[in-house]
Amino acid sequence: AEMNRELRERLVQLKKERNAIILAHYYQRDEIQEVADFRGDSFLLAQKAASTDADTIVFCGVHFMGESAKILAPNKTVLIPDERAGCPMADMVNVDGLRKLKAEHPNAKVVTYINSSAEIKAETDICCTSSNAVKVINSVDADEIIWVPDKNLGHYVQQHTDKKLIIWEGYCNTHDMLTVKDVVEMKAKYPNAEFVVHPECRPEVVAMGDFVGSTTAIIDYCKNSSAKEFIVGTEDGTGYQLRKDSPDKTFHFATKYLVCPNMKVNNLKKLVKCLETMQPQIYVPPVVADKARLSLERMLQVK
Ligand code: 13P
Ligand code: SF4
């Protein structure tokens, strides 16, 4: 606790020196969320990165999030506490595979989940996140959509659009692990609880949800619901904001395995160190960034 206090004091000082803003995803460790200037889901964090006037953005999340921030704010320094924090789902799609699919479906437009590399975004018509996926799909001027890389979110979106999705077979290891059996057991144990679930979970699990949405949407729903008890089907870091917003409510995570090990690679010590050394910085080659930026900016414009 003493060490964390010293780290937090050092952080306040460094933030001023570097004119830095600290952005944290809801899946980050509590010790990071506590000191963040702004917490959010993937969409709100991308929006914040695009609009901040700080010189330095410290992105506490996984690598693709830092990359998206750098693409949207190319003149700013974007730091990430540990560049080894990756997203296995983002790595499940490669440029060659996507180009092949585009060649097979020349009339289709490509909608890419923000959980993807800059190279994939550069091959994309428009990006989306879990909070705006349906809106984005319905805004696209094409009947056929190539959807990468999350098959579970793709299945969910397909149920809310008349367009035909050609779905890539990627998935989030963390959310995909949650099973119907897990949820059935939790519902038996907590019969009065509402089940809130992220659309990165399997379709049959999502179908059991009393509410389906992005991290921010889940947090807002729980805050406003009249229910007092929830079974949560998303990553455990979300508990920080859920409990902060609704101290009188009870949150049971659906299993103890709803932990993204990549998100937890970052910690307070590494956060302070990256602002001290101004390393590691996110770099995206300008030719890639310029193309990828279009797909992200189109997403930010969807109303
Ligand atoms: P959201 O931030 O859109 O809820 O997505 C969750 C996620 O898995 C981020 O990696
Ligand atoms: Fe990737 Fe899933 Fe972790 Fe999000 S929770 S960073 S989608 S592995």
Automatic annotation (TrEMBL):
Keyword terms of this UniProt record: 4Fe-4S, Coiled coil, Cytoplasm, Iron, Iron-sulfur, Metal-binding, Pyridine nucleotide biosynthesis, Transferase
Stretches assigned to coiled coil: 1-24
Membrane-crossing segments per the record: none
Pathway noted in the entry: Cofactor biosynthesis; NAD(+) biosynthesis; quinolinate from iminoaspartate: step 1/1
Top-level taxon: Bacteria
Chief place of localization: cytoplasm
SUPFAM superfamilies (alphabetical): NadA-like (SSF142754)
InterPro entries: NadA (IPR003473), NadA_sf (IPR036094), Quinolinate_synth_type2 (IPR023066)
Subcellular location field: Cytoplasm
UniProt cross-references to PANTHER family, sorted A to Z: QUINOLINATE SYNTHASE, CHLOROPLASTIC, QUINOLINATE SYNTHETASE A
Annotated function: Catalyzes the condensation of iminoaspartate with dihydroxyacetone phosphate to form quinolinate.
Name of the protein this chain belongs to: Quinolinate synthase
Organism this protein belongs to: Paenibacillus barengoltzii J12
